[in-house]
Amino acid sequence: MNLNLVQQDRIEVQIDIYYKNMTPCLKRIISTIREEEPHLTGKDEDRTVYISLNDIYYFETVDRRTFVYLEKAIYRLEMTLGQIIDNFAQCGFIRTSKSQIVNIYKVTSIKPTIGMRVIAILENKEKLIINRTYRDNFEESMINLRRRRYEKMDL
Amino acid sequence: MKKWIYEVLLAICVSYTIISIIGGGINAVASKEYSFYFNLVMMLIWTSVAAIVLYSHAFFPKWPPLVVILIQYVIALSIILGIVWTSGFFEILSKTAYRDAFYSFTVPYIIFGTIFYIETFKQAKRADSILQELRKDNANNPKT
């Protein structure tokens, strides 16, 4: 097994594994990597799916069930929106209403409408309404994210 | 600081209202001049109606704010005109009572409605500007 480690400034950690056969050792490595990366496990009928936070567009509760929306797929989660915010707010997840949380990094723009609604337009062209009562918190959360990013860059 | 100013203003408004109503009541009894006190109480009722109706927007989060504002206006104005009509049973109304009530409520409502409208657009623009900054930063340096 060849192991190449390349140190570069300001680059996201990237791990590529080239293999011929999946071995127990490789499985352990992959498992460790996945534990390091923030992720969730969703359910699609009987299937359990590993979901990277980077792929999530938004979360929504419908009839007390929580769903996670990806670009083209929807999975059910065994978490409440409160738990999601508690665990992943620092990853860019912000509440837009009582029943929705958006991944801010999937929002392309925020626009007001003639009806005085404020909407977030996602990369997949979906539109989420930012509820009036959550607008201040939404802006504050973005400011906090920006501050945290600058603090990390300064370190 | 902003919260402190808000709390101080709130305390001033509440204290002033209580003192005005109690003071007006004492003066009305002492001088037997009830018309000023009646106006004072009417203003309190109007303000209360307007505040209760305006704050009810929180119960309709899924409705477009513009629609809520218009419905609130119609409801609040109807209640206020209803109060004027009811007060007509207890004292003689001036010829311009309904018109005065209409203007007294509509003009401030339009002013505050316009401020709220502009503020909504400004807030959205501000939020979009922060978002673009975050996106740009994230593109250069993904989720540091």
Low-pLDDT sequence parts of chain B: none
**Major sheet of chain A, described briefly?**
5 strands, antiparallel
What is the helix content of chain B? Answer: over 70%
Helix content of chain A: 25-40%
Cα(first) to Cα(last) distance of chain B is: 31 Å
How far the N terminus sits from the C terminus of chain A, by CA atoms, comes to 35 Å
Label the overall shape of chain B: elongated
Chains forming the largest contact:
A-B, 35 and 30 residues
Secondary-structure element string of chain B: HHHH
The average pLDDT score of chain B comes to 85
Count, helices of chain A:
3
Notable features of this structure?
heterodimer, A: 155 residues, alpha+beta, five-stranded antiparallel β-sheet, three-stranded antiparallel β-sheet, 3 helices, 10 strands, 28% helix, globular, B: 144 residues, mainly alpha, 4 helices, 83% helix
Description:
The complex is a heterodimer of chains A (155) and B (144). Chain A is built from three helices and ten strands, in the order αβββββαβββββα. Chain A is an alpha+beta fold and 155 residues long. The longest helix of chain A is centred in the C-terminal third of the chain and has 23 residues, at 132-154. The relative contact order of chain A is 0.10. Chain A starts with 23 loop residues before the first helix and ends with a helix. In chain A, strands 5-4-3-7-6 form a five-stranded antiparallel sheet. In chain A, strands 8-9-10 form a three-stranded antiparallel sheet. In chain A, strands 1-2 form a two-stranded antiparallel ribbon. Chain B is mostly helical and 144 residues long. Chain B contains four helices and no strands. Chain B is elongated. The model of chain B has no long low-confidence stretch (mean pLDDT 85). Classes of the chains: A alpha+beta (155), B mainly alpha (144).
